[in-house]
Amino acid sequence: MADTPAPATGSTGYGADSITVLKGLEAVRKRPGMYIGSTGENGLHHLVYEVVDNSIDEALAGHCDRIEVTIHRDNSITVSDNGRGIPVDLHPTEGLPGVELALTVLHAGGKFDKNSYKVSGGLHGVGVSVVNALSEQLTVTVDRAGARHQMTFVRGHTTQKLTVIGIAAGTGTTVHFKPDPEIFNTLEYSWTTLSDRLRQLAFLNGGITIVLTDEREETPKAETFLYKGGLVEFVTWLTRTKRNLHPKPVHFSATRDDVDVDCALQWEDGYNENTFTFVNNINTHEGGTHLTGFRSALTRTINEVAKKSNALKKEGFTLSGDDAREGMTCVLHVKVREPQFEGQTKTKLGNSEVEGIVRAIVNEHLGQFLDENPAVGRAIIEKAVSAARAREAARKARDLVRKKTGLENAVLPGKLADCSLEDPALCEIYLVEGDSAGGSAKMGRNRSFQAILPLRGKILNVERARIDKILGNEEIRSIITAIGCGVREDFKLAEARYHKIILMTDADVDGAHIRTLLLTFFFRQMPELIEAGYIYIAQPPLYRVAKGKEEYYAYNEEERSAFSKRLAEGSGKGSVNLQRYKGLGEMNPDQLWKTTMDPDTRTVMRVTLQDAVEASKLFDELMGDNVEPRRQFIEANAKYVSVLDV
User: Fold this and answer.
1) Where in the sequence numbering do the catalytic residues fall?
2) Domain ranges of the chain
3) For the segment 562-599, what is each residue's pLDDT rounded down to a tens digit?
4) Distances from the Cα of 427 to the Cα of 94, 224, 309, 449, 594, angstroms
């Protein structure tokens, strides 16, 4: 009989004993980012969403119509609902109460049982157990079968077994948790972030009351979200600052093959499309099969209506999807029993059958609506035909900025100082306000990987312009040509010549306005750059504080005061010299490099898109035609301004 070989651990010492087995919720605490995305502000708020989603699932199943969320003074959270209550009886095989299983075991919950929930908003069924694992303390109270039950956990471990603490008049679940400071970088909840999400859930689930209360202020504030009109009210809210082409949103809903489709549409006289899609309450900002089905049906239906009315007889063209969707705001909510998500952030629907279902429902119901409401149809067709004419004019303008290879056939901006490296992942371009600052940036930069494009004055406000006018703007053409990936239907992310596009403007009101104009342009015309994480904002210092040969750069008032005090109390002769930079051009090249352009010492902020609905609303308020929302925004936020240049 041959000898049994010894374990081949080798000199590295890597054997079976090197493999770590994480039991229970230990894996969540070890790698929290895998479950909630991050341990920063986004992850902190995600804990609330996970608990609220459980209550929403109860509502979708028809057992809950009220959800209350409270932010306490210590930034702990309470979420309560009047649903059925998490089961408290013993599980037949696990021997634990259902509520304990749901809170301590990953992938344990009613969402995996089709008889419990028809549809569910959770992606992986790990929600409330993850919240438990990442909480310093969590207490769950369940009203069920006439009794009030309670359990307590510390960092995912049971500290108080399920106990009956009283009599319950109704049913429901209350979860109180305090995020663990050992896990999270911040424990401060944002009222705005939570209210935006809860408002969205109330719109998507018409008839459900959601109450948000904040106890952190001397006088607690509360807001109630209840929208019986559902998506119609959602679209009305989104378009409340616009000039609409028809008085009420187009709305239809239908169910086919266990897929529920709910859709509301409104056209207005602007030029931007705002389409927001959801699956089981999840914001699918990457789109998917439901969006593909909707768009193809919309284009086909609009063209059919146009042909019936002979609106295209003299034009000699058919309407494109962009033509049909110009000025359209749409919310599409699809409920699917077993959604299959794909994409980098798991927010792109992949169910192939959903595309055909959505297409058929939109074709039928939108076509029927437009046939029955010819005045609305005419307004939409006239808008689309006007867009098509502008598209032809834009084609000529686009030819100036479209490139085939490299920058071939494009009118290169002569003021672009390009970099020598060709790998886009290593290259960055600064969009700089003014020729003076552009000159300093060109002299101070690292020519191998940093390109500079100075911008003269303020670019066109694209929120108020059609594509032909946008592409006719010299500064915008320069930006598109320099970046190299085209715009709108010509856009190809892989052809971007730089993976860092850094907006560098003065630290004054005009600089802030130019930065907002640039962000509006990228959000409306090249949003893929934001989604890819390619857009950044430079952070030039506000002050230089110096004494003798010692100098510091301050980025806010607090730093300025601290540096001034340090230098004043330090040794050496002379007084403290304070310089306020109102413009980038006031810095010489070596100062600009040291403070704002050197990757080893600079601070840049990456622009991210967390909520497309709120972002679109904000750009409309700040940059749209309607003055009243802008005035209201200024009045509401003026108190937060700390430095104002006049």
Assistant:
1) 433, 506, 508, 510
2) 26-225, 231-398, 424-540+606-636
3) 998 888 887 767 788 888 887 787 888 999 999 999 99
4) 56, 48, 52, 5, 19
* DSSP state string for 551-619: EEEESSHHHHHHHHHHHHHSSSSSPPEEEE-SSGGGS-HHHHIIIII-TTT--EEE---S-HHHHHHHH
> Is 3.30.360.10 the CATH number for 231-398?
no
Q: Identify the bridge partners of residue 264 per DSSP, sorted by sequence position.
A: 251, 331
Distance CA 244, CA 287 (A): 25
Is pTM, for the whole model, over 0.85?
A: no
Would you tell me which CATH number, out of the four given (3.30.70.20, 3.40.50.670, 3.50.50.60, 3.10.310.10), belongs to the domain 424-540+606-636?
3.40.50.670
What pLDDT, in 10s, does the model give residues 83-122? 999 989 888 887 888 888 888 887 665 544 455 556 665 5
Residue written as token pair 């971007």: 496
Distances (CA, A) of 313 to 78, 384, 391: 61, 14, 18
What lies within 8 Å, CB to CB, of 528 at 6+ separation is: 491, 493
The predicted-structure confidence for 628-643, as pLDDT tens digits, reads as follows 665 555 555 554 445 4
CB–CB of 179/41 below 8 Å?
no
CATH number assigned to the domain covering 26-225 = 3.30.565.10
- Planar angle of CA 498, 504, 510, nearest 5 degrees: 140
Instruction: Give the pLDDT score at 112.
Output: 41
